[in-house]
């Protein structure tokens, strides 16, 4: 059985699978020789860069630098934020530089907190970029706002229980920033911050379960949602009699939580109908067969990096050359086959001509032998006639001589 083969993305040669190194149980795209060359080239480039930096360095030494894991650029250490801003300047720093962190924060949409599920009120929850900042008592009094009497000194708005609380109630994050939720909301699970009954107990009863005594209470519906500012503490919150609801991001309808599917113990934002509709609108996936010679022979290849136009044009030129070589090889094989057929036909014709010449020679030999036999027969006949004539002559002479003697 032939060993499985694979094409190297570096030297573009088809090599056995044993010539490719592995990393994290995955077969790399380049063979061992190309990988070694690339590593040596990178090491030489790093050496040249270090030599160039040392040669261009003046009396003032350059600040220490490191490579960013996001943009893979060599940047000074000061471009990497400290994990503990309040600690020492030589403390541990992030692996991603500040520009990459800013780009990532801009690209990321504001996340939706799980504690907002089941709290759909008239007004939407405050967005991350619309949170109210900390307002000192002196600044609020100087501004003449109405929050001077309601808001305590240096109070912070908690996004979990929706209340103004003093700063000591808020823990510190890993980067030293003040958390957006108080200690109670941080330690309390999201599904227990607003205690409510189970879905089975809060579901609407069937029509046959209604009695005549509560017939006038059938169409009352759930009680109105209380304002967020009046939301009491979690331990003081009474049991909710209505079914918890959520606004669907697809059809924009407020539906019960039983209409929303879950994934990894999280409630999704689109209902079942919208998800089914989205799946129907998607084009069908085309099932492609694996390449020839790679069926169940190697783990799935890693995702290839994006290639430049020059690399794509070089690949296309190499493919054209390979296709032309295949065509030339096929034409040469056809020519060799035609030449072999012509040679076989010539050999058969020569054999036929030799057989015909042999038959003609045999026919001539037979004719010559027949002529010789005929000549011999004529000679024997002539000899017989001569002997008969001689015998007759002697007999006649004998009889003619006898009367004369008498």
UniProtKB/TrEMBL annotation:
Name this protein carries in UniProt: Uncharacterized protein
Composition bias, Polar residues: 46-59, 285-297
Organism the protein comes from: Claviceps aff. purpurea
Biased composition regions of type Low complexity, renumbered to the chain: 136-145
Region: Disordered, residue numbers: 40-65, 108-151, 169-244, 279-324, 378-406
Composition bias type Basic and acidic residues, residue spans: 170-186
């Amino acid at each position: 059985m032939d060993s499985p083969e694979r094409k190297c993305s570096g030297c573009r040669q088809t090599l056995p699978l044993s010539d490719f190194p592995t990393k994290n149980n995955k077969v790399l795209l380049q063979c061992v020789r190309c990988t070694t060359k690339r590593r040596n080239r990178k090491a030489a480039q790093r050496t040249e860069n270090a030599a160039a930096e040392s040669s261009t360095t003046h009396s003032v030494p350059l600040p220490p630098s490191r490579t960013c894991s996001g943009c893979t650029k060599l940047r000074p250490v000061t471009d990497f934020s400290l994990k503990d801003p309040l600690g020492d300047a030589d403390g541990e720093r992030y692996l991603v530089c500040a520009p990459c962190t800013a780009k990532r924060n801009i690209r990321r949409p504001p996340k939706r907190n799980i504690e907002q599920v089941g709290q759909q009120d008239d007004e939407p929850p405050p967005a991350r970029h619309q949170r109210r900042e900390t307002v000192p008592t002196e600044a609020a009094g100087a501004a003449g706002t109405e929050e001077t009497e309601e808001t305590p000194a240096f109070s912070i708005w908690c996004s979990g229980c929706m209340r103004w609380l003093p700063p000591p109630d808020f823990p510190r994050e890993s980067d030293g920033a003040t958390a957006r939720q108080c200690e109670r909301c941080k330690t309390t699970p999201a599904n227990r911050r607003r205690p409510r009954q189970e879905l089975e107990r809060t579901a609407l009863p069937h029509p046959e379960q209604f009695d005549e005594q509560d017939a006038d209470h059938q169409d009352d519906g759930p009680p109105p949602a209380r304002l967020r500012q009046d939301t009491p503490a979690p331990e003081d919150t009474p049991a909710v009699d209505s079914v918890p609801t959520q606004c669907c991001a697809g059809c924009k309808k407020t539906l019960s939580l039983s209409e929303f599917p879950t994934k990894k113990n999280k409630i999704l934002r689109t209902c079942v109908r919208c998800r089914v509709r989205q799946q129907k609108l998607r084009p069908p996936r085309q099932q492609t067969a694996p390449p020839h010679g790679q069926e169940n022979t190697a783990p799935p290849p890693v995702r290839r990096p994006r290639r430049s136009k020059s690399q794509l044009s070089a690949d296309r030129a190499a493919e054209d050359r390979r296709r032309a070589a295949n065509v030339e090889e096929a034409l040469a094989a056809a020519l060799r086959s035609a030449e072999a057929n012509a040679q076989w036909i010539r050999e058969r014709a020569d054999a036929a001509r030799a057989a015909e010449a042999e038959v003609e020679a045999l026919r001539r030999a037979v004719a010559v032998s027949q002529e010789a036999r005929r000549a011999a027969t004529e000679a024997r006949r002539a000899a017989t006639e001569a002997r008969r004539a001689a015998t007759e002559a002697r007999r006649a002479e004998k009889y003619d001589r006898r009367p004369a003697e008498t």
